[in-house]
Design goal:
Distance between the termini: 75 Å
Strand order of the largest sheet: 1-2
Radius of gyration: 26 Å
Strand content: under 5%
Order of helices and strands: HHHHEE
Number of helices: 4
Helix content: 40-55%
Number of domains: 2
Structural class: mainly alpha
Number of strands: 2
């Protein structure tokens, strides 16, 4: 029996079966559509994982962007060792930006040293870290996720 959707009939003919049939139980219908959803999400994830990397074009692709970012980071790191972001990915930098991290807190009494998420600096390093994002953290810095350290 032909459906009122010619595109579905064509797909059914090409793949030797029907996606949806009149005799299908509700359970079978839900199983088929769940598998299709998993396939779509899995396929999209695989495609997203394949993107990026390498020289995109001569006019300013990924390689040029990385070189510029590294040069800027090196200059900033000379002035402030806690601003050395070499080795951080664009995702890491975006996370810092989204959390509104700043090297010097604008709110009195709210700085990284008294934050619950602060990771204490090594003896030889003036910069600490954070449990919420990667990279160096200035002890006098602050971000939108600041939470008072437990007293005790």
């Amino acid at each position: 029996m032909a459906s009122s959707y010619p595109a579905i009939d064509e797909i059914s003919y090409k793949f030797g079966g029907s996606i949806v049939s009149e005799n299908m139980s509700r359970k079978e219908f839900l199983q088929r559509f769940a598998l299709m959803g998993i396939g779509v999400v899995g396929g999209a994830s695989m495609l997203a994982g394949c993107g990026g990397g390498g020289d995109k074009s001569e006019s300013g692709g990924t390689a040029q962007h990385s070189a510029t970012k590294t040069a800027e980071t090196t200059e900033t790191a000379k002035a402030d060792p806690c601003a050395d972001y070499t080795g951080l990915t664009d995702t890491d930098l975006t996370m810092r930006k989204n959390l509104k991290y700043v090297a010097v807190s604008t709110e009195e009494g709210k700085n990284c040293l008294n934050c619950k998420f602060h990771l204490v600096a090594k003896e030889s390093d003036a910069c600490g870290g954070c449990q919420l994002f990667k990279g160096p953290v200035h002890p006098q810095g602050n971000c939108a996720s600041w939470f008072a350290k437990d007293q005790g």
